[in-house]
Design a protein that fits this description.
alpha/beta, 57% helix, 871 residues, 9% strand, 6-stranded mixed β-sheet, globular
């Protein structure tokens, strides 16, 4: 637990366990006149009268009960009468004994909190620890004999919090067995406190043992259970208006998200914290925001943000003060490094090094952090050997955590590549990714025990350790060694894992837990088979934080696998920005010619264009594997030259290669049987006239029914869950015309809560679709932005389309953004007419896009439609 978080927890008075404040505040209230008290709010009046009665004034009991009943009736605080009756059953002596113990516990809590706030060092901590522990144990032992269960709960809660603090201090005297015993004792004490608090129905006081339970789960490495406990704490704290405990909860979830490189969860926690704390006054929050901006290549914004944060004065010698004064220039150095301002980066790093934090362990950690930073600056300055000398130290590598070693190996790989040692780079980068895989395998074991708390773990993001940049660098190294085949395999193996699946039993467990599949490695014969499904082969891309690569794979005229690739000097954030700008222009229907050419030149360097060659016919097909930001790119607006793809070839897209062989190409007969569903209504079960939500969808389905007279048509009030489930489990082609909507109270998973809108407000989520494993020949998702979702670095864009693909659906037609109703209907009719003429789905999609252009439709309409599949 971070010291600032411990201090916030331990400095809160235990005597406020029922939610009305500390003893000092209560005693001050007793000085008020009875007339003033009568005019106070119920909570304030109760606090004063309750403490007067509890201190021995028996005449106050009637007033206490009256105010307690008032609070239950008017404020929904029905725990208060239970508190009163608990104390009413005690004798005056028993009540007084409980108050004395509460004061002892409160004094111990304040002392321990101050020790953390002031940054007590190891030797001082040991002396203070012995004294405080003796007091904690004495108070806890004494509480066992008290009739006042409230005081007993407070003593149990404090003992749990104290030992959490001791574990988080990483006392060198504790061996592994002792730490395990203490962890078990903490859990017992916290649950005892919760049980005692539950006797009164108390929520606010229970937040403290709840926090202890969450922290101990995190200490044990049971991160799914820890995250569930933090989430429950956040909800409980929100219910009673305890902002500090909500901050504790979100900080805990944020630390787990950072450890697991879960950027989506990290963003959620940061956004929640931003509503609870001011980043310009709370350094831990400011630090997290700065890191977020730096990792997203917004270094200039990070520097502006850090300029607004006021560092502690130089005479603030607390651990928090010195750590903050050191970390501000450290993060400024990181931002300058991302901007390429190496002189300023080195100056800020030197300033950070001059600030010494309190505590030997902290100083060792900071020395390692500075070593990493200086090595990165050396590498950026062209001093690759200096970076290698610094990071290749065996003693350093041995002391690092798996995440840290992954980062070190990635840096070493980059440095060796800069020196021209591609073989050495491969060794370092493979080790970095192996460490990421081991961490992933370790963590996947435990989440399967808790399928109800579904989570997504991602181990090749960019927060720390090995990331997509490591994969990109390894791809570069293979290209430098002249092995484009291995470069393509590397790109696909690390980016298609959740599509590639696991053994059936494990895959089902992972899916139910909302977790990505480990994925079977892609073999060269499988890559050959996929490249052979199209006349022009396939293209795969990989983009890391700072660079990317493209590889084209085809079957040569001699029948052999033929590969060529090239490095791309474009980072993922730059690519994401270019994709965003092109989407904006496409949706606006404005001229994007120059931007199209820029993106085209970046994604298809001349060497790759030459390797692809010119199509023999405009029916020749090219498979593009769109990973990460490329999944949102309207690549259909690009081409191999001056013309768009649709004018010179047929484009197929996938977010990665599924497991196994591609199988035989389907025939027109496979696309003859159809089920047409959608056009939901609202209020079908009420007396009011049902409201048709999508009139255009109804008209679209009616016209398609004329083209497919034998198709099953389900719409309006009949478009319910059983009908859709039946269609998903059948073997027919499926056309769905509906909205995409968020499903309330959806189970947390790697999929967003969005799904297909059904009749009367029901929604079938992406997760639910994936669990049904729909293995259909063709699905047309005529819904707004049905090809969208949310990103998971290294795994892709997760949404409804991904759920169909992972379930086994072979071909999909989706939209990249919302399309006007008439354009959607025109596309659908043109697509189905082309299919009816025997055209393959990929060619039919191309034909329908060209039909929209012939009608005068601009890019807002035709460029939105994408074919995902292999025909």
């Amino acid at each position: 637990m971070r010291s600032w978080l411990i201090a916030a927890l331990l400095c809160t008075s235990l005597s406020g366990w029922f939610g009305f404040g500390a003893f000092s505040e209560q005693r001050a209230e007793l000085q008020r006149t009875s007339t003033a008290v009568a005019n106070e709010p119920p909570a304030t009046r109760f606090k004063a009268v309750f403490e007067r009665w509890r201190a021995g004034n028996a005449d106050s009991l009637t007033s206490v009960r009256e105010i307690a009943d008032e609070m239950c009736r008017d404020l929904n605080r029905c725990d208060v009468p239970r508190i009163v009756e608990h104390y009413a059953r005690l004798t005056p002596e028993e009540r007084a004994a409980g108050m004395r113990l509460e004061q002892q516990v409160n004094d111990l809590r304040i002392r321990l909190g101050r020790a953390y706030a002031e940054g007590v060092q190891n030797a001082e901590w040991e002396a203070l620890r012995v004294e405080i522990e003796a007091g904690v144990e004495l108070a806890w032992t004494h509480s066992r004999s008290l009739a006042d269960h409230g005081a007993r709960a407070q003593a149990s809660s404090l003992r749990a919090e104290y030992f959490v603090a001791r574990l988080e201090k990483r006392d060198a005297q504790l061996v592994a067995g002792e730490r395990a015993e203490i962890a078990q004792q903490i859990e017992t004490d916290a649950r005892d406190a919760l049980a005692d608090f539950a006797d009164f129905g108390i929520v606010r006081a229970a937040l403290y043992p709840q926090l202890s339970l969450a922290r101990i789960e995190q200490f044990r490495g049971r991160l799914v259970f820890a995250r569930a406990a933090f989430n429950a704490l956040a909800e409980s704290a929100a219910a009673v208006g305890d902002t500090d405990r909500r901050v504790d909860a979100y900080q805990g979830m944020l630390s787990i998200a950072n450890e697991r490189a879960d950027e989506i969860e990290g963003d959620r926690c940061l956004e929640a914290l931003a509503t609870l704390r001011h980043a310009d006054k709370d350094w831990p929050l400011a630090r997290a925001w700065a890191m977020r901006l730096i990792h997203r290549d917004r270094a200039g914004e990070a520097l502006e943000f850090l300029d607004e944060f006021r560092a502690p004065d130089a005479d603030d010698n607390s651990s928090t003060g010195s750590q903050t004064r050191r970390e501000i220039p450290f993060f400024r150095a990181m931002a300058y490094l991302r901007e390429g301002n190496l002189e300023s980066a080195r100056s800020e790093a030197e300033q950070a090094a001059r600030v010494k934090s309190v505590g030997v362990n902290r100083q060792l950690l900071e020395a390692r952090e500075l070593r990493f930073l200086e090595a990165r600056i050396d590498l950026a300055a062209g001093k690759a050997q200096d970076a290698i000398t610094s990071m290749a130290d065996p003693l350093l590598l041995e002391a690092l955590s798996p995440h840290e070693e992954g980062a070190a190996r990635t840096l070493l790989g980059q440095a060796r590549l800069a020196q021209g040692d591609a073989l050495g780079a491969v060794t370092e980068l493979k080790r970095a990714l192996q460490l990421a895989d081991l961490e992933r395998q370790r963590a996947l074991v435990e989440p399967l025990l808790a399928p109800d708390e579904a989570r997504r773990f991602n181990f090749i993001g960019e927060w720390e350790g090995a990331g997509l940049e490591s994969v990109a660098l390894l791809t570069h190294a293979h290209l430098a060694l002249g092995d484009a085949l291995l470069a393509a395999l590397t790109s696909e193996n690390w980016q298609s894992r959740s599509l590639r699946g696991d053994d059936d039993e494990l895959a089902v467990q992972l899916a139910r837990s909302g977790l990505p599949s480990q994925g079977k490695p892609l073999a060269s014969d499988e890559l050959r088979a996929w490249a052979g499904t199209t006349e022009l082969g396939l293209v795969t891309w990989i983009f890391g934080a700072d660079s990317g690569a493209v590889v084209h794979v085809k079957i040569g005229v001699d029948g052999k696998l033929d590969c060529a690739g090239e490095r791309i000097d474009l980072g993922r954030e730059d690519l994401r920005d270019a994709v965003r700008r092109l989407r904006e222009r496409a949706i606006a229907g404005s001229n994007a010619g120059a931007l199209v050419q820029d993106i085209q030149r970046a994604l298809f360097p001349q060497s790759v264009l030459a390797h692809i060659g010119r199509p023999h016919s405009d029916r020749d097909r090219l498979l593009v594997l769109l990973h990460g930001p490329l999944e949102s790119l309207p690549i259909e607006m690009l081409g191999l030259g001056e013309r768009k793809f649709d004018d010179e070839l047929c484009l197929l897209a996938l977010p990665g290669l599924p497991a196994g062989q591609p199988g035989e190409r389907l025939t027109p007969k496979d696309f003859e049987r159809w089920r047409l569903l959608g056009s939901p209504v609202d209020g079908a079960d009420s007396d009011a006239q049902p409201k048709v939500l999508l009139p255009g969808a109804g008209a679209e389905l009616a016209e398609l029914a004329k083209l497919h007279p034998t198709a099953g048509l389900v719409q309006g009030a009949n478009f319910r869950r059983p009908a859709l489930e039946f269609a998903l489990l059948a073997q027919d082609c499926l056309h769905i015309a509906t909205h995409l909507e968020v499903k309330p109270n959806e189970t947390r998973s790697r999929f967003p809560a969005a799904g297909l809108r059904l009749d009367d407000g029901d929604v079938m989520s992406a997760l639910e679709i994936g669990l049904l494993t729909p293995r259909l020949p063709l699905v047309v998702l005529s819904a707004c932005e049905s090809g969208g979702g949310r990103y998971a670095d290294g795994e892709g864009l997760f949404g409804v389309a991904r759920a169909f693909l992972e379930g086994g659906t072979r071909n999909l037609v989706v939209t990249l953004w919302p399309v006007e109703d008439q354009a959607a209907r025109e596309f659908a009719l043109a697509f189905h007419r082309a299919l009816a003429e025997g055209t393959a789905p990929s060619q039919a999609t191309r034909t329908a896009r060209r039909h929209l252009i012939s009608l005068g439709r601009n890019s807002a309409d035709w460029a939105a439609f994408r074919f995902l599949g292999r025909d």
